[in-house]
Amino acid sequence: MPTLPPEQDIVKIATLRDTASLRQRMAALGIDIPVDDAIKTSATSPLAAPMRIGSVTVGNRWAIHPMEGWDATTDGHPNELVARRWRRFGQSGAKLLWGLEAMAVVPEGRANPNQLILREDTIGEIVATAGQMLDAHKERFGTTSDLLWGVQLTHSGRFCRPNEKTRLEPRVAYRHPILDRKFQVTSDAAVFTDDELKRLVEKFVSVAVMCEREGIPFVDVKQCHGYLLHEFLSARTRPGPYGGESLENRTRLAREIIQGIQQAAPRLIIGVRLSAFDLVPHRPDPAKSRPGAPGSGIPEDCSACLPYRHGFGVNPNNPTEFDLTEPIEYIKLLQSWGVAMVNITCGSPYYNPHIQRPAFIPPSDGYQLIRDPLNEVARIIHATQTLKQAVPEMPIVSTGLSYLQDYLPQVAQALVENKWTDMVGMGRMVLSYPGMIADSLETGKLQTRAICRTLSDCTTARETAWSPAATR
Predict the structure, then answer these.
(1) pTM
(2) pLDDT of 393-408, one tens digit each?
(3) Buried b (16+ CB within 10 A) or exposed e, 322-353
(4) Using an 8 Å Cβ cutoff, are 51 and 395 in contact?
């Protein structure tokens, strides 16, 4: 992917007048992404076409990614803040509500002390809250028969903060030469033992059985963003049956969980949200940093650990580049195990946020822009295209499009039309503008004041300009 020349300014998407201007901007950057001239409504849009996922015919090609608000109760129960967010998901018009949000299978596996926990004492409230979402969808769109929803099963691994938001309590797959320093892993005591993993498999399966019993149709076995199951995909330095150079070993934990769920809860549809590639962790450039203003992102020094054996989908000889050889092989394995769909993301917001969340203003705990974020959008789009072409039978959901802002629907429909992906998912855009999907399909017009401008503040918003009535 081309880098941004130092003398070239980064152009705000909102300043581009039309799709012709967007094409010109992409051409200047050497980017090739399909984009339609106008938003197509349901009568002609490929995004309005149904798609079969497992036993369900999903009503359109829009999905909403799982996003927790760190706003459940400290004992893992949903509350009104969770319910409001889920109701808005239901009113959005998306027919695939992917995992709603990450839910821990064990309390100590939470990424924050306000994360939902899947337990016997919480499952009833979680399902009842999802019921509000389903009611909101039915009221707005007339039926839920073509809607697929579920929960995302997770253990946060290296990023566990189950008791205090400021205190890490990491559990890891292996010792990492760069991330251990960053995330306070100081001894082998943080590394899961094989026996602990066997018990964790049992926990994932028992939680899935509980979900099936309560009528939840779909579970996502989360393998992305540096969380535990994603980290095991790169556990080359771990000895024993769950690590080493063999991809079979590094995927063993996920396979035991997925196949265990299939045997114990056969009615559940299983998906995987997958970080299909990673890059070496990045940090602010100290030469360009000043108090309160981090510098632009640069790769961590990994010269002492080349070839790089600590990432999944990474070029080991140049870990600033991805290599999709293993991810393609892994998606084929997921298909052979009966996984119904894969949601493609990349990297981790904890150590390289620019690659999966392109933003005009980066997160405050990250680093400044490395290059025009359109390059990052193009990278994940083209990686998804490559994966889809390599495993055409696997339904694929794409991600990373919010930075396109006013032109998200025009690109999304072109990606589906050109078979670069099967479905298009939205994350932070839905937090500021839940009605984008319905507006685009029904009227072909967007409410520009509600569009997320990728200022990395959207997850702190309590109210938005959008209301469901505005999309009627």
Answers:
(1) 0.94
(2) 999 999 999 999 999 9
(3) bbbebbbebbebbbeeebbbbbbbbbbbbbbb
(4) yes
